[in-house]
């Protein structure tokens, strides 16, 4: 058990996997609760997103700041707060669950004071924003705001990993701010200028897909760790396009489009990044094992099933994908934590 507290990714990626499976249960067993839609939204947008954000931000923070990772009694305490937020989402009324979620996000924000001092203010403020989201926006708006955060993080991480594989350095920090700003502007305009919001989302989504063309698109397709990132980014951009199109009368249901973005864009991107902690370290870099590859395939299939308006099948496949992730993660939960966690020490030409 003590191994679990040696690195922040261990408890929080474990909790994220469990929350992802639990979040599918209201759809898989719709008769088990009086409010399957609300319970599903809380489990996904508060619990799963919170755990995934905590695991990634606390793991990346030492790289940004040069400081040691969160350890000692603070890590179990923060994980306990997260676990309490997860239980509250399923067991307490909506208002109480939101409050416990806010307390957990505040604890995460305090744990990220180092990145704040190091100048990573936007990222360090993210937990506070995640805590406030359930009080401010409807579920679709929350999905879009979380997608803006993924655009900010992934817009640096994805080209960083791809360019490192080619011996190059990503230098697109300023450009990374434009897509998130466009998404947030669209969220703000949904109530007053729907056509403009739709156009913004379609444009930002198209730009995100096009950006991939400049990130070594024809290189390293034989490296599954990088292919997973590309798939996640394609779902991210494509999902934004679909959500934008659903806001105008083109016959695409908004609920279907928002699930393509959340299941495909958010689910695959989180798996591609969190899964790096569970990959085998080889002389040629990170190599995902078969179970992790299966997890990504299942999440992509779940997104496709949701696009085909098959929510029950999608929920079962989604749950299976995250169970596969948990199986793949298990070896990474014991022993000495890898360093660095999300990449491997490698020669310049490897992934």
UniProtKB/TrEMBL annotation:
Keywords: Membrane, Transmembrane, Transmembrane helix
Annotated transmembrane regions: 12-29, 41-61, 73-92, 143-162, 174-190, 196-216, 228-250, 256-278, 290-309
Pfam families reported for this sequence: NnrS (PF05940)
Record's keyword annotation contains Cell division: no
Name of the protein in question: NnrS family protein
